[in-house]
Design a protein that fits this description.
451 residues, globular, transmembrane, transport, membrane
Length: 451
């Protein structure tokens, strides 16, 4: 039932990515307005993930999980029935609250499962999050082609209904709670600096990294971030205990998640665009949306398999070694995509290899975070790690888009060298993560408190 809880959110991360041009035409909107379907969802999920994780730690994870799923359900139904683009953007903002389902699920797993099943449960949920992102890209084309745009949101809504019923009937309320109030000022400051950074980074490809718009937003984000950190460190009851973030196991895992998120979101967002490029450009395969999505299926499948079996593999080779292996595998995949991309059959192999690598990383990184923090801080620590992945994804997507725009041609299609450069940069990011993984401490076994 917890797997069902994170599935609709993981799909909604990417279902709209390949279909944005179709949605734009359907509603007669311009490109900047349509882009808010992604930006709005990303902003809300980035803010809601750590805040809901903290609320779950304080007042009960099942209760807050139901709230997160109810918001995702309401937003999905609103989007499915949206008469205008503005209505759909508001709906996507509400959907983003569902991001809290991930840290809350981690916390419930740690509270309820036997010690020997906690790591595998966390790995499965992590695999579903990353695998669902790839699966959303795969199925979005066929769904729109055969059923229409509205079914992009009705399908996750149906899953969310089942998840709410299952959680209410089968998941017990959390016995581990801090029962501490949530400080409002740090929560507001968190929302401000995350929003400023994400909007600024997301707008960089269209406005330019050196534009006053981007510099102002990123500057505001950095200044508020500094103030937020100072406040959190001096509060008796902080929103996020930043002292936990200084633990070597925690900060290394968060940086690895950020860099791997860059590679995952950057590659998954633009490999389909590459394959859809017309062959008369000198590269690309002229695929339609459905065919381009099929090319990402091996990545989604490999990620899901890693989520199931990563804990068993970690017991043999060690989770730190497995993270390094996963980062190295993802690096090789992106190098091959950058340099050997003229045969469609090989692209299936390269994307599958990438899914294998990122699947191993995220399954083990999540377990490392949970193992490193006290049980009563599981939700907020896991939510913060998810945010590092989200921020990395935003940077990876914006950086890739900026590189491609720098290699624009008279026809409006990026030159092949643009894709080569972008994928090499993403490979470099995950290679740094591979080196950093070697410095992660070996996590202790994850145990839950005994009454």
């Amino acid at each position: 039932m917890l797997a069902a809880s994170v599935t609709p959110f993981s799909l909604l991360q990417s279902l709209t990515v390949p279909t944005l041009p179709t949605i734009q035409r359907e509603y007669g909107a311009d490109q900047p307005t349509t882009a808010w379907l992604l930006t709005g969802f990303l902003l809300t999920s980035a803010v809601a993930t750590p805040v809901l994780g903290r609320l779950g730690d304080s007042y009960g994870k099942r209760r807050v999980l139901v709230v997160a799923l109810a918001a995702l359900l309401a937003g999905s139904l609103m989007a499915a029935l949206a008469p205008t683009m503005k209505w759909m953007i508001v709906a996507r903002v509400i959907q983003g609250v569902g991001g809290g389902s991930l840290p809350l699920s981690f916390g419930i797993i740690r509270d309820e499962l036997p010690d020997d099943r906690i790591a595998s449960g966390i790995g499965l949920i992590s695999g579903l999050l990353a695998g669902g992102f790839g699966l959303g890209i795969v199925i979005s084309g066929p769904v729109v082609e055969h059923f229409g745009i509205h079914w992009l949101f009705l399908l996750p809504a149906i899953v969310a209904v089942g998840a709410v019923v299952a959680v209410l009937r089968l998941v017990p309320e959390s016995p581990v709670r801090t029962r501490q109030r949530i400080p409002l000022v740090p929560a507001l400051l968190l929302a401000v600096w995350l929003s400023a950074l994400l909007i600024g980074i997301s707008g960089a490809p269209s406005h330019g990294w050196g534009s006053p718009y981007v510099i102002a937003l990123v500057g505001v984000g950095v200044v508020v971030l500094i103030g937020w950190v100072f406040l959190e460190l001096h509060l008796t009851i902080p929103l996020i205990d930043l002292r936990l973030m200084t633990l070597r196991a925690v900060w290394t895992a968060n940086v690895v998640a950020f860099l791997t998120g860059m590679a995952l979101y950057g590659s998954h967002g633009f490999i389909p665009q590459f394959t859809q490029t017309a062959t008369d450009s000198g590269y690309g395969f002229g695929s339609n949306v459905t065919e381009a999505g099929h090319m990402m299926l091996p990545a989604a499948a490999a990620t899901l398999v890693c989520g199931v079996y990563a804990a068993r593999a970690a017991a043999v080779v060690g989770s730190r070694n497995l993270v390094a292996i996963g980062c190295t595998t993802a690096t090789v995949s992106l190098l091959l995509v950058a340099l050997v991309h003229d045969v469609p059959a090989l692209m299936y192999v390269w994307t599958g290899l990438g899914g294998l690598g990122t699947g191993l990383v995220f399954a083990c990184v999540a377990s490392a975070i949970v193992a490193a923090v006290p049980q009563e801080h599981t939700g907020v620590a896991a939510g913060t790690n998810t945010n590092f992945r989200t921020l990395g994804g935003a940077c990876g997507t914006a950086l890739t888009a900026s590189i491609l725009s720098g290699y624009g041609t008279a026809s409006g299609v990026p030159a092949e060298q643009g894709y080569t450069t972008a994928f090499l940069v993403l490979a470099g990011a995950v290679l740094v993560a591979a080196v950093l993984a070697c410095f992660m401490p070996s996590p202790r076994p994850i145990r839950r408190s005994r009454p």
